[in-house]
Design goal:
Blueprint lengths: L9 H21 L22 E3 L10 H12 L2 H7 L6 H4 L16 E3 L6 E3 L1 H6 L4 E3 L8 H12 L4
Parallel strand pairs: 2-3
Antiparallel strand pairs: 1-4, 3-4
Length: about 160
């Protein structure tokens, strides 16, 4: 399953995520439950929690778009460290506990990508590869990521060539 792939723009998606987090915390208060967005709040041999981010541009979503997906992934591979630093509020320290290369996570120290590869930094859905257009998933953002920082880094890399 590829999860819920709502069609929101980057900024609107960020607004929705922050409001959803706030609502969750308010409801939890009513039941004396504490919410943690930490990517690995309990140490151990498990994968932790991410904020996998689906990415596409109009060119990627139209016929022949696969070449634009590949170009974006190539650009992101050159900025791996910058992305890791932007993908959790601790500059990568939180994600270091989660991105171990085990349990369907990529290693924080090495960029990787692949079709239907749940252990890669970037996963291209099998159907996207078959269709030749669509979106890809960045599996590196942590569950406590600031969605505006994630969007900013992605846009700077794949649209502005920064």
């Amino acid at each position: 399953s590829s999860g819920i792939n709502a069609e929101y723009g980057g900024i609107e998606m960020g607004d929705h995520l922050w409001v959803s987090r706030w609502i969750l915390c308010r409801i939890a208060e009513e039941f004396n439950v504490v919410i943690s967005f930490d990517p690995k709040p309990i140490p151990g041999d498990w994968n932790g929690a991410g904020c996998h981010t689906n990415i596409s541009t109009l060119k990627m979503r139209t016929a022949g778009g696969y070449k634009h997906i590949e170009a974006a992934i190539a650009a992101m591979s050159k900025k791996h460290t910058e992305h890791i630093e932007s993908y959790d509020p601790s500059g990568g320290a939180d994600n270091r506990r989660r991105l171990t290369g085990l349990h369907e996570t990529a290693s924080i120290d090495q960029f990787s990508s692949g079709v239907a590869h749940r252990g890669a930094s970037i996963r291209i859905p099998r159907q996207v590869a078959a269709d030749g257009y669509g979106y890809f998933e960045d599996r590196r953002p942590s569950s406590n990521a600031d969605p505006y920082s994630v969007t900013n880094r992605i846009i700077r890399t794949i649209c502005l060539n920064e």
